[in-house]
Write a structure and sequence with these properties.
The chain contains 17 helices and 20 strands. The protein is α/β, with parallel strands linked by helices. It folds into 2 domains: 13-248, P-loop containing nucleotide triphosphate hydrolases (Rossmann fold, 3-Layer(aba) Sandwich), CATH 3.40.50; 280-328 and 350-469, Rossmann fold (3-Layer(aba) Sandwich). Helix 16 (457-463) links the parallel strand 17 (444-452) and strand 18 (468-475). It binds adenosine-5'-diphosphate and the ligand O=c1ccn([C@@H]2O[C@H](COP(=O)(O)O)[C@@H](O)[C@H]2O)c(=O)[nH]1. Pathway: Pyrimidine metabolism; UMP biosynthesis via salvage pathway; UMP from uridine: step 1/1; Pyrimidine metabolism; CTP biosynthesis via salvage pathway; CTP from cytidine: step 1/3. It catalyses: cytidine + ATP = CMP + ADP + H(+); uridine + ATP = UMP + ADP + H(+).
Length: 517
């Protein structure tokens, strides 16, 4: 059972907090264990999200069925419930006045912006982000805000016309129709619309008789023939169990043991070791000066104290970010010096630039980026491996506005920040997430302290050849090990109690832990 306290609003933006409660209840994004990989080692998506379309009369129980499916799924990756109600068209002042007098037909298919609904759903299904409109039933109007959604592995969409349009039907993996007695629907609608949508009983009945019932008979009820399964509008727990069993089976079939595969796929990293010069032009290693080697020696030394570790990590982060900055485009700029002479220089030639840190070991590099670009927008991604499968899971996405909106993301340069690239599983997931948002591959600069030669970097480069990787050192080994879990007394516990991790060797240890603990 997906307990209430295990569900969170997920991959959402702050605008949702100003939504009226009805809307935020209808459009929810929930997760219990994060999103497993949805792409192959070529970096391309291998499976779409699983989409369920639920149609039925008004107040038949569509939203209820959607919520019951989520509950019955138990431990699931991310699920979004998307209501067709959000896609009612924008209305003029005259139309709103008519709506308050129950003189607008909201039950005709033309009342809903079907192309926009299909486009948003297609984006979500194809694992791209979308920004859905927000509709106010109290005002009968589309609001100016939108709601950002990204990252659902399962999408449940519901609405009276959810099965009406062929473009919508073609997006569903499972089509459901909720069949409910008309009296029960009317009774529920009166109760709900008075309580939640600011209506009077007379108004609800008037609207029901004039528009809702005829539209149900003409447009909604006939779509039941498209459904794969018809669910009763009450006492429907058996049907819900059947649906969730089907979804679970589909999800298991789609699951891939990504991390193991990545390691078995990886080949020697293409570098000439002697001088550290990369063979691949997009793997940029800092010049191996004695000064740089001195910094790495302190950082590799397990006996270095925390203060030194932080100081030298900060210094190294600045070097790396400065190196990465060389890859941003610049244009000529003429300035007049205090001596009155014109001088041709350079200025940054980018529309947007931001940093995205992989929590939490990307943190020290974030500070380095902020030292170089003081007002840079910063986002974060939380990727963690599943304790049982070792598979990376995308647990949290918090991105700045320039990435949440596709038309801005295509012109945004991103510094992707993580302490090291070992198996490259997190890097893969982070890059795929940026591409899903519309960021161009050659606008991504991955900045990292260490790359493991025997790790997944080669597969990463093969999948995303235009992404630049800026690092300070390439280490030889990558070893799977148990990271002990410590008990309350601070004593290590036996193998099996801890977490399986990949360790870069010789490496610098757990960089995030040494920096922050
Ligand atoms: N199976 C059910 N058992 C009891 N009450 C239900 C059931 N399905 C829906 N309801 C109630 O009926 C009302 C309308 O349901 P809702 O799911 O919002 O309808 P719809 O989304 O189809 O408009 C809500 O108050 C809901 O709690
Ligand atoms: O401004 C509006 C928009 C829609 N409606 C009514 O809402 C229902 C659909 O919502 P359900 O949650 O499926 O019941 C539809 O029958 C419209 O009549 C509205 O009253 N005002």
């Amino acid at each position: 059972m997906l307990a209430e306290d295990h569900t969170h609003e997920f991959f959402d933006d702050e605008s949702q907090h100003s939504l009226e409660s009805h809307q935020s209840k209808k459009n929810t994004l929930l997760k219990s264990h994060g999103r497993p990989p949805w792409y192959g080692e070529d970096g391309l998506p291998i499976c779409d999200a699983f989409v369920i379309g639920i149609a039925g009369g008004s107040a038949s129980g569509k939203t209820h069925v959607a919520q019951q499916i989520v509950r019955s799924l138990g431990s699931v990756p991310t699920v979004v419930i998307l209501s067709q109600d959000s896609f009612y068209k924008r209305h003029t002042a005259e139309e709103i006045a008519l709506a308050h007098a129950n003189r607008i037909d909201f039950d005709h298919p033309d009342a809903i912006d079907m192309p926009m609904f299909a486009a948003c759903l297609a984006d979500l299904k194809a694992c791209r982000q979308t920004n859905i409109p927000v509709y106010s039933f109290a005002e009968h109007q589309r609001l100016n805000e939108t709601k950002y959604l990204y990252g659902a592995a399962i999408i449940i969409t519901e609405g009276i016309m959810a099965l009406h349009h062929p473009d919508l039907r073609s997006l569903y993996d499972l089509k459901v129709f909720v069949q409910c007695d008309s009296d029960l629907m009317l009774a529920r609608r009166i109760q709900r619309d008075v309580k939640e949508r600011g209506r009077s009983v007379e108004g609800v009945i008037e609207q029901y008789l004039r528009y809702v019932k005829p539209a149900f008979d003409n447009f909604v009820s006939p779509t039941a023939r498209h459904a794969d399964i018809v669910v009763p509008g009450s006492n429907n727990s058996v049907a819900i169990d059947l649906i969730s069993t089907h979804i679970r089976r589909q999800m298991t079939e789609r699951a891939r043991h990504f991390r193991k595969h990545m390691v078995s796929q990886s080949v020697e990293c293409c570098l000439s070791t002697s001088d550290g010069n990369p063979v691949s032009k997009n793997l940029i290693v800092l010049p191996q000066t004695p000064q740089l080697k001195g910094i790495y020696t302190i950082l590799r030394d397990g006996t270095s104290n925390r203060q030194d570790f932080i100081f030298f990590v900060d210094r190294l982060a600045t070097f790396l970010i400065e190196k990465a900055m060389e890859h941003l485009p610049h244009r000529p700029k003429t300035v007049t010096t205090p001596t009155g002479v014109d001088c041709i220089g350079k200025e940054l030639d980018v529309k947007n630039v931001c940093g995205v840190s992989i929590i939490r070991s990307g943190g020290p590099l974030t500070r380095g980026l902020q030292r170089v670009l003081s007002d840079v927008a910063i986002g974060s991604l939380l990727v963690q491996s599943d304790a049982n499968t070792g598979e990376p899971l995308l647990l949290h996405v918090m991105l700045p506005k320039c990435l949440r909106e596709r038309h801005l993301a295509v012109d945004t340069w991103v510094f992707l920040l993580d302490a090291q690239i070992g198996t490259a599983a997190s890097a893969f997931m982070a890059i795929r997430t940026l591409l899903d948002h519309g960021v161009q591959q050659d606008h991504i600069i991955f900045v990292t302290f260490l790359v493991a030669r025997a790790g997944g970097v080669t597969v990463l480069q093969r999948a995303f050849p235009k992404v630049k990787i800026v690092t300070g050192a390439v280490d030889e080994g990558l070893r799977e090990a148990w990271l002990e879990r410590y008990n309350e007394k601070g004593e290590g516990q036996s193998e099996g109690d801890g977490r399986k991790v990949w360790i870069v060797e010789p490496g610098m240890g757990q960089i995030g832990d040494r920096y922050y603990l």
